[in-house]
Amino acid sequence: MKRGTALLETLTRPVVALLIALLLGGVFIALVQGGAEAAFKAYQSLFVGAFGNANAWANTLKQMTPLLLTGAAVAVALAAGLFNIGAEGQMSVGGLAAAVVGYSLKGSVPVPLLLSLALLTGAFVGAVWGFLPAYLKVKRGAHEVITAILLNYIAQRTTQYLATFPLKDPQGQSPSTPEVGATLPRLLPTYDVHAGLLVAVLVVAFMAFALRRSIWGYETRATGEGAGAAEASGIATGRIQIFAMLISGALAGLAGAVVILGETPFRRFPADFYGVGYGFDGLAVALLAGGSLTAVFPAAFLFGALSAGALEMEFNDTPKQIVAVVQAVLIVAIAAKVVLRRRVSLRKPNENSEKANGI
Amino acid sequence: MITLALFAAALRLWTPLALAAMGGVVSERSGVVNIALEGMMLGGAFASVAAARATGNALVGLLAGVVVGAVIGFLHAIFTQALRVPHILSGVALNLGVLGLTTFALRDIIRRGADGLDTKVLLPGELMGLVAVAAVAGTWFVLYRLPLGLRLRACGENAKAARSAGLSVARLRYGAVITSGALAGLGGVALALTGLGAFTENMTAGRGYIALAAVIFGRWNPLGAAAAALLFGFGDALQLSLQTAGLTKSIPPDFLTLLPYLLTLIALASFSGKGNAPASLGVEED
């Protein structure tokens, strides 16, 4: 009985938050584009684009693939009490690294080895990019959100430069790297779902298990719930936080690699890759999942559907940026404490107040 | 390389940063973390161009930018104080929402056949520079010379004690964050209405975050933050003058444009620490 109500409570919040977010998004569409009809039409094409036919389902799963990884990336950092807003940057450096490995080894190694090396390199470079804000936080006291945002801009400009000049495909028309030697195979012929989905599901399931069952996972969660108490019980919280950001960066970097090696328009790293958006969407996915890695699966699916639908919506004259507004409302609606507080007022007040250690 | 023109460019680039940084100081000294500066600037920039274009009056544009910034500040106050959303999350959501909404509106305008969002009426850069200087002096004066400033700082240092002393912490914070939004919105106005007079997608491009870094770098003191903003303004000006000096043949522009971000990162890495942060900053109470 008690477990039942608890489950209901954890489900109610995201569902209510999503409804509020969609409603407000509709209001904005109606305000800008003139009338409720425009909002209705926009949401209709959103739904058709996400679930309307087999192709739409394939698009939803394709969009879900990197979101699983970036959502998990943000959730792992969140578990250790860090907010990784740098996933987009980590993803773009990871994607570039994978592209470089993918085209330099073209024809010289067997395909499975090439793909594995490209994926691993992407994860490694992403981890390096994720290490920087964690190190600066633990050792220098600089807030990880600000440093990660700055590192995002630096990643954007650096990858843009590298893909435009030294790494540019000399034969290419637009600035991008040469094409990689092999791509992740499609799961179904003629549909855009690729093997990256399997990679993402396996990696995230493993991380979910490790976070819940391993000593590392325990220490990470203890650090996230209260660094002071964790420190007092002998956990090296600084090291735990740095490691969590390494994992987080690796997952984001892997997402970049999976997108470059798997998604159909890519196969080469374009100069304007940064801003493709999966990294930023990962924030909303992780928050919707309440920081739980298991819940990242349904959350990533939902956001995959939203982005697949957004493309169709844009095709029908509603700019897809409205999805960002829906996400923003969603973040506030999920993080707001006031509604829940009233409903559980009979219980003891929650003592472990979060501290957003001073910026 | 250090010429009068460079100095003038640095001052021009300083203006929006300094205005937003003053917004950051006011909000954070009252105890509310404000990374929403970015969205406040962006919203202010959008509103100022849209209003100036619609009315043909730059002062109306200025007013619209300030009001929209203040409204975003009001939202940040509601989210953090009434709904108890963690300050950083509220900021992330507001920045995301404002970016989405302004881009959405801009693309919708372009879809209807306009070239973009621009205006012929502009504000003189010198005027906005003077406004920024006045904002710095005013923030300093209010914070350190008026009873209001003492109360505000008390909220940031020890909210519980301030409350037991009979202060209305919530009301003071609402006021501070709304003021913060108005100042950052004014920063957006300075960015949009003194230069080309056009709004482009994500035109603030992280200036709000850089302004917040200036607040931290300047130890939450208005004068310190203004000085730090000047440093970042110089970094930006240097980068621009290197670009126009034709050095782009040896140094690619992408590298030059990352200079201000890199400079900010290095400054944060060298001078962070919680030393002078208001003690109650971002602390959530029950």
Structure commentary:
The complex is a heterodimer of chains A (359) and B (286). Chain A is mainly alpha-helical and 359 residues long. Chain A is 71% helix and 0% strand. Chain A is built from 14 helices and no strands. In chain A, α4 (87-104) packs antiparallel against α5 (111-140), α4 (87-104) crosses α11 (278-288) and α5 (111-140) runs antiparallel to α6. The longest helix of chain A is centred in the N-terminal third of the chain and has 32 residues, at 2-33. Chain B is mainly α. Helix content of chain B is 73%, strand content 1%. Chain B is built from twelve helices and two strands. Chain B has helices at residues 4-29, 37-55, 58-82, 87-111, 125-145, 147-157, 159-164, 169-193, 207-217, 222-244, 253-257, 259-271, and strands at 117-118, 198-199. In chain B, α1 packs parallel to α5, α2 (37-55) packs antiparallel against α3 and α3 runs antiparallel to α4. The radius of gyration of chain B is 19 Å and the shape is globular. The N and C termini of chain B lie far apart (55 Å). Classes of the chains: A mainly alpha (359), B mainly alpha (286). Chains A and B meet through α1, α6, α11 and α13 of A and α4, α9, α11 and α12 of B.
What is the N-to-C succession of helices and strands of chain A? HHHHHHHHHHHHHH
CA-based gyration radius of chain A: 21 Å
Judged by helices, strands and strand pairing, the structural class of chain A is mainly alpha
Strand order of the largest sheet of chain B: 1-2
Number of helices of chain A: 14
Most residues in contact: chain pair: A-B, 53 and 57 residues
The major pleated sheet of chain A works out as:
none
Report mean pLDDT of chain A, rounded to a whole number: 88
Helical segment count of chain B: 12
Kindly estimate the percentage of residues of chain A that lie in beta strands according to DSSP: under 5%
Distance between the termini of chain B: 55 Å
**Beta-strand fraction estimate of chain B:** under 5%
Helical content class of chain B: over 70%
Distance between the termini of chain A: 43 Å
Which residue ranges of chain B are poorly predicted, with pLDDT under 50 across at least 5 consecutive positions?
Answer: none
Q: Taking all residues together, what is the mean pLDDT of chain B?
A: 89
- Unreliable segments of 5+ consecutive residues of chain A: 339-359
